[in-house]
UniProtKB/TrEMBL annotation:
The lineage of its organism: Bacteria, Pseudomonadati, Pseudomonadota, Betaproteobacteria, Rhodocyclales. This is Amino acid permease. PANTHER family: AMINO ACID TRANSPORTER-RELATED (PTHR42770), INNER MEMBRANE TRANSPORT PROTEIN YBAT (PTHR42770:SF11). One of its GO terms (cellular component) is plasma membrane. It comes from the Bacteria. One of its GO terms (molecular function) is transmembrane transporter activity.
Amino acid sequence: MNTTVLDPLATGFAGGGQQSATLHRKIGWAGAFWVASGVPALVLFSIGSIAATVGKPSWAIWIVSIAFGFLQAFSYAEIAGLFPHKSGGASVYGAVAWVRYSKILAPLSVWCNWLAWSPVLAIGSGLAAGYILSILFAPDAAINTWQLTLLDLGWIRTDLALRINATFVLGAAVMLAAFAIQHRGILQAARMQMVLGIAALAPLMLVGLWPLLSGDVSTANLAPMYPLAHDASGAVIDGAWDMSGLTLIAGGLFIAAWSTYGFETAVCYTREFRNPRTDTFKAILYSGLLCIFVFTVVPLTFQGTLGLGQLVTPEVTDAEGNVVSAAVYDGILAPEIYSGMGVAQAMAHMIGGGAMVERVLMAMLVLALVLSIMTSMAGSSRTLYQASVDGWLPKYLSHVNRNGAPTPAMWTDLGFNLLLLMMSDYIFVLAISNVCYVLFNFLNLNAAWIHRLDRPNWARPFKAPNWLLAVGTVLAFCNMWLMGMGADIWGAGTLVSGLVMAASIVPVFLFRHYITDKGKFPAAMIEDMHLGAEEGVRNRAGILPYLTLAGGAAVVYIAHSVAVL
């Protein structure tokens, strides 16, 4: 039987169905590199919380995690090359593999990817606002202490609430500024990202290199690498490599993945590359190399300079044993380091040079956060856009403005994140978001071998070596283990809350597919995904995708069962 070699570029697909406007092909790999250059700034989001939770091994956590992310990226580069006419990133390309086996799995992949990336807007804006307020005002100033509580969410997590304060107001302004830039289209956004990238990546490079060159990094702060533990009085001691210690390590690797795997966003812009055949691989490769440097060096110098920290004020309890005031530590165990609000000030102090130099560096770190916000808005909005075009999310999301920017999707992103910005605990938001991100990674890493089986004759501008594809598959299950074991160290119910958020796509998809579209996918999507009986494309994977899903669920269950919290 003759087989047909299918070249997605030669098919002439528009990727936007019958829309009157579509995304524009205006950038090369360098443009996508600069749009993705906001990913290294994600180290600011959780560097403090990981260090304060895991202890001395935290710097090694980042190295292992970025190694995982880099190895996984080659699977994403291959599947992105199969669909150079589609926008939305790896989740959309992976969804093509899963949709032939279940209608629900495809939108689940895309939804989880969006729920993972979108909160960068809220968390990044909140941290940027906190940095700005710390530059301008004292911690006890009225502008930093006033708060209006709108809704108590203590039933989800202790002390969680929706509130309005100065951080929310200023953070909303930062988010709107990023929106205004993205509204002008991908080419203008990429140019602005290049300017911001040069200014924003400089302080991260400085923080990573200066302490090494000046000799301020102490090896005593990095080793011996025992998980964090406390004695009966609350003093810091070396833990043990028992199940409790391994649970901490799993939690650290779990939360680090949200940052270190993020450069896969470089493939979100395949639909807007002038030459997607070559630009896709180059974009993700060079973005990955940049992230390897930042995620390796910055956590190393951060911990090596500040040190683990010791008990400053013991915990105070009442007669019934309830905590009146929590224990206070210095170093990387300080509460402002855990929350992230004090990370910029600590990094600025690492460089030295006086108060003025510290303020300038903190201002540049604000730019780094703005860069990450713009990266997230560009990627997550395009995921919503393509998911709508493909018939998984509401139709209104499939429109773009005259600049080729998916503005309805961007407005949806904005509204969702204004709600998240009101949350009183950004680390909890990040952890729930990462449950969705791990699910997305699991589905998409396995999508690579499903595509190999179902579409063996499609042209692949980049074809990953078989061993790398196998490594990606193993890491998919490894990520599920880390999630099952480590998610709940970031708060009881984190794993369940994340799974509920992921499942919330089901009623949304069912409404779009069965009510709006009467049970039929858009014609362009059916053609793009080769859902019909077509020579050269068949469900060759058989029962393997279903066994993979069952295996992933089993891994999460077993890992969660053996965790010691």
